[in-house]
Design goal:
Blueprint lengths: L1 E2 L13 E2 L4 E3 L6 E8 L2 E6 H6 L4 H73 L5 H78 L1
Antiparallel strand pairs: 1-2, 3-4, 4-5
Helix pairs in contact: 2-3
The structure holds zinc ion.
The site of zinc ion has 8 residues, from loops.
């Protein structure tokens, strides 16, 4: 769930913050933040900069350095999930197109058949009236009635197809929505891991830098 009302402490721009996120970045000013949640929906944001300006102890360094090892693995898994989620979403878009194409073709075929059989039935009706009294009249009537029944059947098929589309299309669209949510979740997770990596790298770099100076 995304929180809409959170603002960047640095530049006041609206932050795209996911509930319970541990890290976030401001797209407007480029600052990164560690997020604490003392109250639900009331996060406290501490800029990376403020954390990195504090003394990085050897203990901090060791924790960050060990975490970096795990993060590389987590990030590559998260990237794989991101790729799978994107592929699944693209597939659902293909499904929606296929469902629409299938129904459009069925509807078109049913309409064409209805039209052709109606015209044929009318022509046979004319044949029937034109040949009243001779032997062709019986055939004309028979074919006119047969074609009329066929046209009626095609028309029923058209109505049934028209009624069937929304349900199947709705199912395909629901699957697409789920796939889209999975993409958003994967993207948010990857972003968090990358931010944590930036922070850990900052800590180890800072510790090494000060270590070299002393
Ligand atoms: Zn900002």
């Amino acid at each position: 769930m995304r929180l809409e009302a959170i603002k960047c402490p640095k530049c006041d721009a609206r932050l795209n913050l996911v509930e319970a996120a541990k890290f976030c970045a401001c797209d407007h000013c480029g600052n990164n933040f560690v997020v604490h949640w003392p109250q639900p929906a009331q996060p406290e944001l501490t800029p990376f900069q403020a954390i990195l300006e504090r003394l990085v102890t050897q203990q901090d360094f060791l924790v960050a350095d060990r975490r970096l090892g795990y993060l590389a693995q987590d990030i590559s898994e998260s990237q794989a999930e991101m790729r799978q989620a994107s592929a699944a979403f693209v597939a659902t878009q293909g499904d929606i197109t296929a469902v629409k194409a299938k129904y459009n073709e069925k509807i078109r075929n049913a309409l064409v058949c209805t039209g052709l059989l109606t015209v044929f039935s009318l022509v046979m009706l004319m044949v029937f009236f034109a040949s009243l009294g001779d032997s062709g009249a019986g055939w004309g009537l028979l074919l006119a009635v047969g074609a009329a029944l066929g046209a009626w059947y095609c028309h029923q098929l058209w109505k049934k197809t028209m009624a069937g589309e929304p349900a199947e299309l709705r199912d395909a669209e629901e699957r697409a929505d789920l796939a889209r949510e999975r993409c958003i979740a994967a993207q948010a997770q990857l972003k968090e891991l990358e931010l944590e990596q930036v922070l850990c790298e900052g800590k180890t770099r800072r510790f090494r830098y000060h270590g070299d100076k002393s």
